[in-house]
Amino acid sequence: MSADRRVLVLNGPNLGRLGRRQPEIYGATTHEELAALCREWGSAHGLEVEVRQTNHEGVLLDWLNTAADEETPVVLNAAAWTHYSLALYDACAQLVAPLVEVHISEPKQRPEQFRHTSYVEPYAATTISGQGIDGYRQALEFIAGAPAH
Ligand code: DQA
Questions:
Q1: What is the dihedral angle through the alpha carbons of 95, 98, 108, 35, rounded to the nearest 10 degrees?
Q2: Residue closest by Cα to atom 2 of ligand 1
Q3: Residue 104 near ligand 1, beta carbon < 6 Å
Q4: So what's the pLDDT on residue 3?
Q5: For the chain, which residues make up each domain, given as ranges?
Q6: Does ligand 1 come within 6 angstroms of the Cβ of 119?
Q7: Which atom of ligand 1 is nearest to the CA of 112?
Q8: Best substitution site from 29, 76, 101, 103 to test ligand 1's pocket, by max atoms within 8 Å of Cβ?
Q9: Which ligand 1 atom sits nearest the alpha carbon of residue 102?
Q10: Which of 6, 12, 90, 92 might form a disulfide with 79, Cβ 3.0–4.6 angstroms?
Q11: What is the average per-residue pLDDT within 85-97?
Q12: Region 72-85: what's the mean pLDDT?
């Protein structure tokens, strides 16, 4: 049997406070619980999932650059950086394996105009938003079904 395909789940700023951060918008699941669920969901599909979170944009860019070099599929919730980071846009442009954009809430339905723009979307194979943390499960399912490049 072949080894599990590696997938990175990368979460941007403020997502480390899931469970405590605006639970009426982002739900009660903590980041640690989300990470465990992603590993479970991935392994059910033969994926080896590594979940990371950072509040530092350069750290996320380094992870994306390495994912580009290693041709690793990425599930990305870039949080607020989604809406304004051109460096993130450039990093996403370099990815080789599928990129899936995830948002727990539905940014395009939220009142702040700035949330209606995404610099990840142009390079994402698909965007899953407004599904709560189940969006991560759907993203992993999408990657499991995507052809190995
Ligand atoms: C988010 C939506 C963004 O607008 C926001 O800045 C976040 C979280 C989401 O998962 O719904 O931090 O990406």
A1: -100
A2: 79
A3: yes
A4: 60
A5: 5-145
A6: no
A7: 4
A8: 103
A9: 10
A10: 12
A11: 98
A12: 98
pLDDT tops 90 at residue 143: yes
Where b means 16+ CB within 10 Å and e means fewer, 108-140 reads: eeeeeeebeebbbeebbeebbbebebebbbbbb
Active-site residue among 83, 103, 119, 136? 103
> Which residue, by CA, sits nearest to atom 13 of ligand 1?
79
Residue with structure tokens 């405590």? 20
Average pLDDT over residues 38-45: 97
pLDDT at 1 over 50: no
Q: Which residue has the tokens 């339905």?
A: 109
Give, for 66, the enclosing helix (H) or strand (E).
helix 57-70
For 10-19, the pLDDT digits (tens) are 999 999 999 9
Does the predicted TM-score (pTM) go above 0.85? Answer: yes
Compute, in angstroms, the gap from residue 2 CA to the centroid of ligand 1.
Answer: 35
